[in-house]
Design goal:
This protein has 14 helices and 17 strands. The protein has helices at about 5-20, 25-30, 35-40, 70-75, 90-95, 135, 155-165, 175-180, 245-265, 270-290, 300-305, 315-325, 345-370, 440-450; strands at about 60-65, 120, 125-130, 140-150, 190-200, 225, 330-335, 375-380, 385, 405, 410-415, 420-425, 425, 435, 440, 460, 465. Helix content is about 35%, strand content about 15%. Strands 1, 4, 5, 6, 7, 8, 11, 12 and 15 form a 9-stranded mixed β-sheet that branches. It starts with a helix and ends in a 15-residue tail after the last strand. It has a domain at about 60-200 and about 210-230 and about 310-480: 3-Layer(aba) Sandwich (Alkaline Phosphatase, subunit A). The chain is of the alpha/beta class. The relative contact order is 0.20. The model is unreliable at about 1-40 (pLDDT under 50).
Amino acid sequence: MHPLLESQLTTTRRQFFGQLGLGSAALASLLNAEADAAAEPTRVGGLPELPHFAPKAKRVIYLFQSGAPSQMDLFDFKPGLADRRSEELPESIRQGQRLTGMTATQDSFPVAPSKFQFKQHGESGAWVSELLPQTAKIADELCFVKSLHTQAINHDPAITFFQTGAQLAGRPSMGAWLSYGLGSTNDDLPAFVAMVSAGKGKPGQPLYDRLWGSGFLPTKYQGVKFRSVGDPVLYLSDPPGLSKETRRQMLDDLAQLNQRNLEEYGDPEIATRIAQYELAYRMQTSVPELTDISDEPEQTFELYGDDARTPGTYAYNCLLSRRLIERGVRFVQLFHRGWDQHTNLPSAIKIQCEDTDQASAALIQDLKQRGLLNDTLVVWGGEFGRTVYCQGKLTADDYGRDHHPRCFTVWMAGGGIKPGVSYGQTDDYSYNIVADPVHVHDLHATMLHCLGIDHERLTFKFQGRYYRLTDVHGRVVEPILA
């Protein structure tokens, strides 16, 4: 910017905020405190016009299975493949689909049926693999969407697409959009929390902090990552020798300095900084109480499994997610790594299911018995599916599967979603969708609808354009709504 123009702009800001007498009241206005109080007395942050209509869900727990679980080994039962084992995948099915660099040079694409048994469960008759016995028990609580499809064929852009609605980094994540739009109902915890766990097998694809970032939204809407080692949140503990009173005085002095800068420049990131320092101070009390699971009864650990006693495990994070939403956190996202099974799939997927099956089912049961499932939306799934053809050599006991964006399965449960249904259909090879396709933007639009949000109206102007989570696409999947 030209120095004279910058000087004029700064002066104008200074005069404007000086006339307002910014102070504490104006800062509160910047943080939308007064508007929030009028719109929803118990809400902290958010836009006053949201929700757009009565929501069925108040909060979300997203169980993201990073690496892409194989749909045909878990949920998408294809009994006819048993007779086609090792046959070449017909070109009429593959239809010239682009392949990853890992299988594009293969001379053969042999069909690899799942080696695992499937049974129907519950009154809904949902097909579930023997790998997921606990999930099978709650089949009537779930909605299986078997016709999800995406645009990306490699992990990083596909995971980014699921989190932000775009394959390229830089957009706000789902949780950031909800934090921006709906705020929280607890002033002592973040509106958006992310946690990462890894299976007992290979750790899988790396995950980056930008996946729970705020993109071009103000940074106060980004997710807060809870760690499994040391302090759950970095820099919450007071330095050795620093008393609580000294810490409080330091923050008060720092807030005054930041407020002077805010009055002069009007940069909303300064307001964010003030608010985040205060939130961190309050979290010094709220987070230790939250993560102290010693008050949980023994039956909780019988439900979730013994792994729930160990910080950093998937089971522990599932239990913590329930404790978070009980305390008013709006969006909790669990990332579990290790589902990328290009080789040795039968043994590797078994380990992953042992790590996640009981805890996933326990979370649904726990929420239901506490009366929380009715207004909590739970989503389980990965970034894409896996191929029916074998990657590498197909043997009697072993096979691997490559990335497959054309069709895969997620399940949903809770607030706003019809339980005990399966939606969408794939062909006999679980390769193409033949009925009721659901795009990632459609999934996002449906999730927002459950929360009382019109996905076309939750927008943010950036660089001259109004952006939204669903970009310029997306439709609500009406048949799966309760």
